[in-house]
Design brief:
0% strand
Length: 424
C-alpha cells in the first residue's frame, strides 16, 4: 500500500506535466482543443481509481503472493531475464484481459469508464475503473506465480507497465515509422478508442501491437475514416461514479425486466451490448448509430463554474497526496474515513459540473461533516502538524464550498433553467 503510494509522488506530477504540455500545444497549435470539463472529469476519475488502489478497496479471491509461495513449481530469483519475461507476459495477459472486458457484458462495466470520454487526450488515459470490486486480474497472470516469478518482481513491473500506457493517448502525435510495427502508438490507440464501425473492438494491445497482429484484431488508422470517440451509449455526465456503474445498472434493470429466467442469467455473460429481445423492444435505449452525427455532452459551464471546478480538482488532488504520504501517521480507520470523504467530495463537485440541483445539499453535507471533525478534534487528520492554522484553512474551505454551491445552484443554474423554459 505505502510503496505504491510513494511511487505516485513521482508518477502523478509527471502525468500532470505531460497533460499541461498537451493542453498548451492544443490551445496554441491544434484545431481540437482540450475541453475543461471533460479533462477535469477524466483526472477526477483517475483520483478515484488511485485512491481505491492505495486503500486496497478490492476483494482478492486469491492473491499472487499466496500462489507464488505455496504452489510455484520453481524458485526463480530476480534477474534481467526474469524481469523481461515478466514484462512480456504481463503484456500478453493484458491483451487478453482487455479483449475479455470488451467482449462480455458484465466485464465491460469494468472498462467502460476508460472509453467514456468523447475526446482522446492524455487526461482520458486517467479514466480508470473503480467498479472492479472483485479482482479478476489474478486469473490472467497466475502462470507467472505458478512458474515462481517473485512477488517483488511483479510489484516493480506492474506499475511500469501501467504507466507506460499513458503517453499514447493523444491526437497530436502522428505515425511513428517502424515503431508502428512493434509497439502500441497513438495512431493504434486512436483506433481502439473510436466508435466507427470499422474500428470497434480493434487494437487491444497495451505495449506491444504484435498481439493484435497475431490474433487478428489489428486495424490501422485510415486517413479517410477520422476517428469518433466515446461509447455507443453516451454517458452524458461528468460524474466518474455514475459512469463507472451506468452499464451495471442497465444490466440489473434488464435482468429484472426479462421475462425468461434463462435471459436473466445469461445477460451477464453474453457479448457486450446484448439485451433480451423482449426487454429491448419494450425498453429501447438510445445508441449512436451514425457516428458523424454525434453530439458531444456539454453543460456549457460558465467561467466561474469552470474555475471553481479546477480549484476543486487541485484541492482534492492535494488532499489525496497528503493522505498517501501520511498513511502510517493517520492510521486505521481514519485513512478510510478520509478516503471516503475524498470519494464523496469528488462525487459532489462533479455533480456540480453536471449542473444538478442536488449538488447543493451534497456540498452542504460534505462541508458540515468536515466542520464537525474540526470542532471535535481541533484538527483535520493531523494537518496542523504540517501547516500552521491548517484546520482554519480547511474550515474556511468548507464554508466557502457551501456559499459557492448555493450561488451556482440557487442563482446561476436556476436562472439558466428559467431561460431554457422561456425559450421552450
Amino acid at each position: 500500500m505505502e510503496s505504491f503510494a510513494q511511487a505516485l509522488n513521482y508518477g502523478i506530477p509527471f502525468f500532470l506535466v505531460l497533460i499541461m504540455i498537451e493542453t498548451i500545444y492544443a490551445h496554441f497549435f491544434a484545431k481540437d482543443k482540450i475541453r475543461s470539463m471533460d479533462a477535469i472529469s477524466s483526472i477526477s476519475s483517475g483520483l478515484t481509481n488511485i485512491l481505491q488502489s492505495v486503500l486496497g478497496l478490492t476483494i482478492f479471491i486469491i492473491t499472487y503472493d499466496f500462489i507464488q509461495q505455496h504452489i510455484a513449481l520453481f524458485d526463480l530469483k530476480p534477474s534481467i531475464a526474469v524481469f523481461v519475461l515478466t514484462f512480456v507476459y504481463k503484456d500478453f495477459a493484458g491483451y487478453w484481459k482487455h479483449r475479455f472486458e470488451h467482449s462480455v457484458n458484465y466485464f465491460w462495466n469494468h472498462h467502460i469508464v476508460h472509453h467514456s470520454s468523447e475526446e482522446f487526450n492524455l487526461p482520458c488515459a486517467l479514466r480508470q475503473s473503480i467498479s472492479e470490486i472483485i479482482d479478476t486480474g489474478i486469473f490472467f497472470i497466475f502462470p507467472l506465480a505458478i512458474i515462481g516469478v517473485p512477488t517483488e518482481v511483479l510489484a516493480i513491473v506492474a506499475p511500469i507497465h501501467l504507466f507506460a500506457q499513458f503517453w499514447y493517448h493523444t491526437r497530436y502525435i502522428d505515425r511513428m515509422g517502424v515503431l508502428e510495427k512493434v509497439i502500441v502508438t497513438p495512431s493504434h490507440h486512436r483506433v481502439h478508442h473510436a466508435i466507427n464501425p470499422i474500428y470497434i473492438d480493434k487494437n487491444y494491445g497495451q505495449i506491444f501491437i504484435v498481439w493484435d497482429k497475431m490474433f487478428g484484431t489489428f486495424q490501422p488508422e485510415l486517413e479517410e475514416e477520422p476517428a469518433v470517440y466515446g461509447v455507443k451509449k453516451a454517458s452524458n455526465t461528468w460524474n466518474p461514479f455514475l459512469i463507472n456503474f451506468q452499464h451495471l445498472w442497465l444490466l440489473i434493470k434488464d435482468a429484472w425486466r426479462a421475462g425468461s429466467y434463462i435471459d436473466k442469467l445469461k445477460i451477464w455473460f453474453m457479448p457486450t451490448g446484448w439485451r433480451p429481445k423482449d426487454v429491448a423492444e419494450k425498453y429501447p435505449i438510445e445508441i449512436i448509430d451514425d457516428v458523424y452525427t454525434q453530439v458531444k455532452y456539454d453543460t456549457n459551464a460558465s467561467v466561474g463554474l469552470t474555475v471553481w471546478s479546477y480549484f476543486q480538482l487541485v484541492f482534492h488532488l492535494g488532499l489525496m497526496l497528503y493522505l498517501f504520504n501520511n498513511l502510517s501517521m493517520i492510521g486505521k480507520p481514519d485513512i478510510f474515513i478520509l478516503g471516503a470523504f475524498i470519494f464523496f467530495s469528488i462525487f459532489s463537485y462533479t455533480t456540480m459540473m453536471d449542473k444538478k440541483f442536488y449538488a447543493l445539499p451534497m456540498e452542504m453535507a460534505k462541508s458540515i461533516y468536515g466542520l464537525v471533525i474540526i470542532a471535535i478534534y481541533s484538527d483535520f487528520f493531523f494537518i496542523n502538524q504540517f501547516i500552521s492554522f491548517g484546520s482554519v484553512i480547511m474550515a474556511t474551505y468548507f464554508v466557502l464550498s457551501i456559499i459557492t454551491a448555493a450561488y451556482f445552484v440557487l442563482y446561476e443554474f436556476r436562472k439558466e433553467h428559467q431561460m431554457e423554459k422561456i425559450v421552450a
